[in-house]
Amino acid sequence: MTATTTMQALVFETAGQLRLESRPLPTLSHPDDVMVRVAAVGICGTDRSIVLGDFPARSGVVLGHEAVGEVVATGPAVTSLAPGGRVVINPTYHCGGCGRCRRGMAAHCTSKDGRELGVDCDGTLAEYVVVPAPFLHPLPPEVSYARAALVEPLACVLNNLTAASLRWTDRCLVIGAGPIGTLCALVLACRGHHVTVVERDTVRVELARRILPAAARVLPEPDGGLWPAAEGTDSGPEVVVDTTGALPADALQVVAAGGTVVAMGERETATATIPVRSLVTRGVRLVGAGPYPPHLFQTALDLAGDLPLETLVTHALPLHRYADAFTALHVPLAATRPETASYAAMKVLLLPGDQAVEDYRCAG
Ligand SMILES: [Zn+2]
Ligand SMILES: [Zn+2]
To answer: Could you tell me the distance, in angstroms and rounded to a whole number, from the CA of residue 97 to the centre of ligand 2?
Structure first.
């Protein structure tokens, strides 16, 4: 155990304002609690939205939920983990006792208020965090921290691709080449699907081309629409995944008859006008997947053994450089000159401790 009693934590104040704060170390208050020294935390689209004021979060909350680290202390009831073990955190808590949990719908647990890490309860962008043992997954030796930091977003991706009810013959269009869109394309390409990604931002087009296997086509979004006109309206993709959270109407225009549009990406303010007739006459489905169920988190960790997730990591910065991290993600903080902010990154990790994060690529 550490002898210190305080730690550094990254706290959300209000839109555009974060601060690094000295906080008391969290304590083990339940027998199955585990204290983790946080090694790396991925900055998520949700964190971006919170800082931009597009997603509600409690003022004064410690941000962050995509985290990996090392066990440093365990409560008396914990038998599956021991100090020194490397773990990834499943931040999607569920109670196990409500009606939804008892009916196998833990993803839609009704006791989540006050338990959403980095939103309404203190998250992982801190040197230490206390997590109930059932939400910690031991890392196999071959999975680096940098790779494991992408397991949580991979679980989101698997949940959304599951909602698409993909068939082997389906051609897929992914809208947006941020970390989520790129992860979608990586999984689809590695599983042998025909996949096209469209993205407006030229930096992200280049990054996605560098990261993805050649089988995944990455196109700058043309002015005329999402799907290359030369391929004709009859040959639209059977599955469209909109990772921008803002373009379901556009997606419905290009999806093939009988196809599925998956609405992904959370943007509190996004609304859309849907051509309802196209759902009826063309047999198109528009679906949302919601949070992932617990078993998909383990599935994502299992898949991480074979997927080079760490290739998405373009930046890994110490916690005190949080302003640089958000600037690389096109989020101008009050302390940053707004004109310097534009996308320069794919996945950005912040490193709260002094542990080395092996195997990350650093372009910044
Ligand atoms: Zn996330
Ligand atoms: Zn529940």
So the answer is: 5
